[in-house]
Design brief:
The protein is α/β, with parallel strands linked by helices. It has helices at residues 16-27, 42-47, 49-73, 89-98, 101-115, 131-141, 151-167, 187-198, and strands at 5-10, 30-32, 82-84, 123-128, 172-177, 205-210. Strand 5 (172-177), helix 8 (187-198) and strand 6 (205-210) form a beta-alpha-beta unit.
């Protein structure tokens, strides 16, 4: 299979950016990476979530929308394939776990308007890993502002993703359980996940594979 627009998603520490990079290099696709380090509220949010949840989510939504809209509209004819390590819906999923009820209602209104202007991917891949694996990955990569992330927060994010999957019958969604493989450091594991993505057909709705 060939995809003009492929999304690689996952929870914090799932390895989505690493996989997106590898696939982009191999296929010659244009890579779109989330610019999370540019968010001025992110470190503040991790230290004081109640105070900074709304500005951090609003900032992420604006940045993600602007980046995707610009990148997907200005495709290079000689590099038509696009691989992204996030999808705009990520903003809605995370906001449901961070915002207060009144803030969430306002955020959902804004999201419903903005999301209509972003194309759907040909395939949406979600890398699923155990919370223990995610925490180990977070610790290994050593970003200071992530070190206090709690298991319960990661569990709630996972629930949010799967709630989204159940609702989106119009989208080809592939969930790959990567708990038992290491596609970042083991070439044979990377080959397994690449073949699952590119050498099989998937129906609209939720498709699940354990590697």
């Amino acid at each position: 299979m060939d995809f003009n627009y492929l999304v690689i998603e996952g929870n914090i520490g799932a390895g989505k950016t690493s996989l997106a990079r590898k696939l982009a290099v191999e296929t010659g696709g244009r890579l779109i990476l989330e610019q999370f380090v540019d968010n001025p509220f992110l470190a503040k949010f991790y230290s004081d979530p109640d105070r900074y949840a709304f500005p951090v989510e609003l900032s992420f939504l604006a940045e993600r929308y602007q980046q995707l809209k610009t990148e997907l509209q200005n495709r290079d004819l000689f590099q038509a394939r696009v691989i992204s390590d996030y999808y705009l819906t990520k903003s809605l999923i995370f906001s449901k776990n961070t915002l207060k009820q009144d803030e969430l209602k306002l955020f959902e209104k804004l999201f419903s308007i903005i999301s209509l202007q972003v194309p759907r991917p040909d395939l949406y891949v979600y890398l699923h890993a155990s919370v223990e694996t995610l925490l180990n990955n977070i610790k290994t990569r050593g970003r200071p502002y992530e070190q206090n992330i709690q298991p319960g927060y990661l569990e709630e994010i996972q629930k949010g993703y799967f709630s989204f999957f159940k609702m989106r019958k119009d989208l080809k969604i592939l969930v790959i359980d990567t708990t038992r493989i290491d596609f970042v450091n083991r070439k044979e594991d990377y080959e397994k996940i690449r073949k699952v993505i590119y050498e099989r057909e998937y129906n609209e709705g939720l498709n699940m594979i354990i590697l």
